[in-house]
Design goal:
209 residues, alpha+beta, 5 helices, 2 domains, four-stranded antiparallel sheet
């Protein structure tokens, strides 16, 4: 299928790829170097290989060239040469990337297929409110999870506990909207404006600063 979303958001570029290709189709699109081929071959699961290839296909489409993704010691991704800050997420059949030359970025998407309420105690704190509407509760929880993942990524994944260090201000969930999030850890306090969307069974949240 390939790219289904590519748009500018607040001086950033967001892309979403729908994975309908098999391994050979994706591999043939790419010009991988030796290190990338070694990484690809290290994955035992074919679905993981396809997911990994889709990320490289999407970043090449977004940059218009062969681009190499590298990771720092905290496993935060960058483009080789530090030409762009990037954030990557994938779930089920979608892969997403957000990128910017000048801003920090964070994006997360989740296919809403699990009983996320069983995990509530791990990431919702006493300051946060979740709707009592049974038809909206699961979606509301997924927005919280994706928003916290986006903040976690934009803050370099350091010294952050989802329940203790990340908070989302109360809001009523809609098909798409904007919410406020806060990171409070040993590095101080930082507030974020996070956008979210329900996209055909996926919850997506992103932020930049």
């Amino acid at each position: 299928m390939g790219v289904i979303v590519k748009k500018e958001v607040n001086d950033c570029l967001m892309g979403i790829w729908e994975i309908k290709e098999d391994f050979d189709s994706l591999y043939s699109r790419l010009n991988l170097d030796d290190d990338e081929i070694e990484t690809l071959n290290s994955f035992k699961n074919e679905s993981r290989k396809i997911e990994w290839l889709s990320v490289r296909a999407l970043i090449n489409d977004m940059t218009g060239r062969d681009s190499r993704i590298i990771y720092n010691e905290f496993h935060k991704p960058f483009l080789k040469g530090n030409s762009f800050n990037i954030s990557i997420s994938h779930s089920h059949k979608l892969t997403s990337i957000m990128m910017s030359k000048t801003k920090r970025v964070g994006i997360d998407l989740e296919y809403m297929s699990h009983k996320i309420s069983n995990l509530t105690h791990k990431f919702i704190n006493h300051q946060e409110l979740i709707t009592s509407d049974p038809d909206m509760k699961r979606y509301h929880l997924y927005i919280h999870w994706c928003a916290k993942e986006a903040m976690y990524k934009i803050c370099d994944k350091q010294d952050i506990n989802f329940k203790e260090n990340l908070s989302i201000s109360p809001f009523e969930p809609k098909q798409d909207g904007c919410i406020k999030g806060r990171v409070l850890n040993i590095h101080g306090v930082e507030d974020f404006r996070i956008q979210y969307k329900n996209m055909n069974g996926y919850a997506i949240a992103w932020t930049c600063k």
